[in-house]
C-alpha cells in the first residue's frame, strides 16, 4: 500500500518559556522529522526551536502598537498571518495550542479564506485557558465558541478534559492526548553543573522548575523547604521562568539564603535536570506538569501535590510521591524521607524514567496527533 502523503501543518503556540510552548515545539520538530511540512506562526520564534532543521518554517506575526488602541491587539494580526500562510503554503491543518487567542484567531482566519483554501483547525487545551479564563465571563463564551468551531479538540490530561466539560459549554468530543518530552543531550556534565551551583556530593539537589505564577504556590514551596531537617542535607535550585525578586524577602525571612539557588530564564533545562536528585512541585492546580515529566526522563523522581492531572503523571509511591495540597509539614516530611533514603530515591527515579518512556514518549504520542490530523482532513 502506498504511504500517505505528508501533511502541511501550521502550529501556533506561546513561544516564551512554558510547558505548552515546549510541547508544541517538540511536536513540530517530531512531525517534520516524520516528513511533514511545519509552519510555526507566532510573534516570536519558539525558544526551543532549533534552527536549520529541514521542513520547518517560522512566520513572525508583526504587531504594530497603534496609539488608537488602549490595549495592543494580537488576535487580528495573528489571524491575518494564519490566513496568509494557509493560502500561500496550502496548509492542511492549523494546530493551535491554547484556545485564547490562538483558536479564536484560527477560526477567524478560516472565515477569511475560500472554502478550498481552508485548513482544518485542531485546538489543544493546556490548562489556564479552561481553568482560569474559562471561568471569566469576559472570556468563557468566546472560548466555548472557538472550541465548538474547531474540527477537533484535545486536552493534555483526563483531568483537563473533565474540567473543560464542567466549566465550558462544549458540544464536541475532547480527545485526551497526554504530553510527551524529548530530552536533549546536556552540554555539560552533572558534576560541572553541580560545581557551578555550589552543591556538594553530600547534599541532595532539589529542583523546582516553573514560571512562578500564583498557581505554582512558591510561598508553599519556600515554607516546605524551611521545614526540611537537617538544613544542610540539601539545596533547592529554582529554575524560574519569570522574575524571582518578589520572593526574595520571604527567602530572607525564612533564613534560606545559601539554601536556595535561583537561575532565571534557563533554556537548556536538561543541564540542571540531569544534576538534580529530587523534584518538588507545590502547585495549587496543574493540568499535567511537564516539569515533572522532564525530571522523570532523567530518572529524577518528584514529590508533588495531588492536584489536577499530576496523578496521571506520577504513580504515587512508585514513580514519585503525592501529597495532599496545602500542608507544608507533610510535604517536608516526604521530602526528608527521600533525602535520607538514596536507594529508595534511585529506585523511584528508575521507575519514573521507565514510566515516562513507556507512556509519554514521542513515538507513542506523536502518531496519535498524526492520526487525528488524518481523520479531520478526511471528514
Ligand atoms: O502553568 C504553566 O506552567 C504554564 C502553562 C504553559 O503554557 O505552559 O502550563 C500548562 O500547560 C503545560 C503543558 O501542557 C502543563 O504541563 C501545565 O500543567 C499547564 N499549567 C497549568 O495547568 C497551571
What does this entry look like structurally?
41% of the residues lie in helices and 17% in strands. The model has no long low-confidence stretch (mean pLDDT 95). The chain starts with 7 loop residues before the first strand and ends with a helix. The strands form two sheets. The protein has a seven-stranded parallel beta sheet, with helices on both faces. A six-stranded parallel beta sheet has the order 10-9-8-11-12-13, with helices on both faces. By secondary structure, the chain is an alpha/beta fold. It has helices at 19-33, 75-89, 99-111, 128-131, 140-149, 158-167, 190-197, 218-227, 248-253, 269-273, 290-297, 310-313, 328-340, 342-359, 362-378, and strands spanning 8-12, 37-42, 56-60, 93-97, 120-125, 152-155, 174-176, 204-210, 234-240, 260-264, 278-281, 302-305, 320-323. The protein has two domains: 8-180 and 361-378, Glycogen Phosphorylase B (Rossmann fold); 190-359, 3-Layer(aba) Sandwich (Rossmann fold). The protein is built from 15 helices and 13 strands. The relative contact order is 0.11. The protein is globular, with a radius of gyration of 21 Å. α3 crosses α5, α8 packs across α13 and α11 (290-297) packs across α14 (342-359). Bound molecules: ligand GMT. Ligand GMT is lined by residues 14, 18-20, 23, 126-128, 156, 179, 210-211, 215, 285-290. Ligand GMT binds next to α1.
Amino acid at each position: 500500500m502506498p504511504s500517505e502523503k505528508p501533511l502541511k501543518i501550521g502550529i501556533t503556540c506561546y513561544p516564551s518559556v512554558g510547558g505548552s510552548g515546549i510541547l508544541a515545539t517538540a511536536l513540530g520538530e517530531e512531525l517534520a522529522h516524520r516528513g511533514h511540512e511545519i509552519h510555526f506562526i507566532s510573534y516570536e520564534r519558539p525558544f526551543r526551536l532549533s534552527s536549520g532543521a529541514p521542513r520547518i518554517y517560522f512566520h513572525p506575526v508583526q504587531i504594530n502598537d497603534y496609539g488608537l488602541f488602549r490595549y495592543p491587539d494580537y488576535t487580528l494580526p495573528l489571524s491575518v498571518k494564519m490566513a496568509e500562510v494557509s493560502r500561500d503554503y496550502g496548509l492542511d491543518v492549523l494546530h493551535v495550542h491554547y484556545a485564547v487567542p490562538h483558536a479564536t484567531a484560527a477560526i477567524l482566519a478560516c472565515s477569511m479564506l475560500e472554502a478550498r483554501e481552508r485548513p482544518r483547525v485542531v485546538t489543544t487545551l493546556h490548562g489556564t485557558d479552561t481553568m482560569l479564563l474559562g471561568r471569566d465571563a469576559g472570556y468563557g463564551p468566546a472560548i466555548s465558541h472557538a472550541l465548538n468551531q474547531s474540527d477537533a479538540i484535545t486536552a493534555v490530561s483526563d483531568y483537563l478534559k473533565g474540567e473543560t466539560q464542567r466549566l465550558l459549554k462544549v458540544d464536541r468530543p475532547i480527545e485526551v492526548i497526554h504530553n510527551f518530552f524529548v530530552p536533549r543531550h546536556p552540554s555539560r556534565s552533572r558534576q560541572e553543573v553541580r560545581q557551578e551551583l555550589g552543591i556538594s556530593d553530600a547534599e541532595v539537589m532539589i529542583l523546582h522548575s516553573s514560571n512562578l505564577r500564583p498557581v505554582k504556590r512558591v510561598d508553599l514551596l519556600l515554607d516546605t523547604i524551611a521545614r526540611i531537617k537537617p538544613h544542610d542535607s540539601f539545596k533547592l535550585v529554582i529554575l524560574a521562568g519569570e522574575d524571582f525578586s518578589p520572593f526574595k524577602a520571604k527567602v530572607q525571612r525564612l533564613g534560606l539564603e545559601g539554601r536556595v539557588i535561583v537561575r532565571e530564564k534557563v533554556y537548556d533545562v536538561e543541564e540542571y535536570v540531569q544534576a538534580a536528585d529530587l523534584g518538588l512541585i507545590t502547585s495549587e492546580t496543574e493540568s499535567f506538569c511537564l516539569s515533572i515529566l522532564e525530571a522523570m526522563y532523567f530518572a529524577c523522581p518528584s514529590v508533588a501535590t495531588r492536584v489536577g492531572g499530576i496523578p496521571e503523571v506520577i504513580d504515587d509511591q512508585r514513580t514519585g510521591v503525592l501529597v495532599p495540597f496545602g500542608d507544608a509539614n507533610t510535604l517536608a516530611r516526604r521530602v526528608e524521607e527521600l533525602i535520607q533514603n538514596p536507594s529508595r530515591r534511585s529506585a523511584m527515579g528508575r521507575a519514573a524514567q521507565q514510566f515516562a518512556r513507556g507512556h509519554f514518549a514521542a513515538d507513542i504520542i506523536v502518531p496519535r496527533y498524526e492520526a487525528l490530523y488524518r481523520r479531520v482532513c478526511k471528514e
